[in-house]
Design brief:
Elements lengths: L4 E7 L5 E10 L4 H12 L6 E5 L3 E4 L1 H16 L6 E4 L11
The protein binds zinc ion.
Length: 98
């Protein structure tokens, strides 16, 4: 089973809304690849609103989301960039995929 993550970043024309769209697998392992990208997006424009959209993902691991949230919360609590809004599927898609 291959747990690959695929990421698309959408930025609107004034750079105020940044959407990080995650497809494939968001797991405890792949979230570490996502973090530097989220970090960069959060610093792109002062006052930008950053959204992580994991609804197209076919596999989302709760632990992966928790690790990501904790890492971002830690940076936010140190005044290091804006918070990130998470949009995730109501029921996390599981690991039964090829
Ligand atoms: Zn997977």
């Amino acid at each position: 089973m291959d747990h690959k993550i695929s990421v698309t970043v959408q930025i609107d024309m004034d750079g105020k809304n940044i959407r990080i769209i995650t497809a494939g697998c968001l797991t405890r392992f792949s979230q570490s690849a996502l973090l530097p990208l989220i970090r960069r997006a959060r610093k792109l424009t002062p006052g930008a609103r950053v959204t992580l959209d994991a609804t197209p993902a076919r596999h989302v691991e709760a632990l992966g989301l928790d690790l990501l949230r904790d890492a971002i919360d830690d940076e936010v609590s140190h005044g290091n960039g804006p918070p990130v809004q998470f949009v995730v599927p109501a029921h996390l898609p599981g690991l039964l995929h090829g």
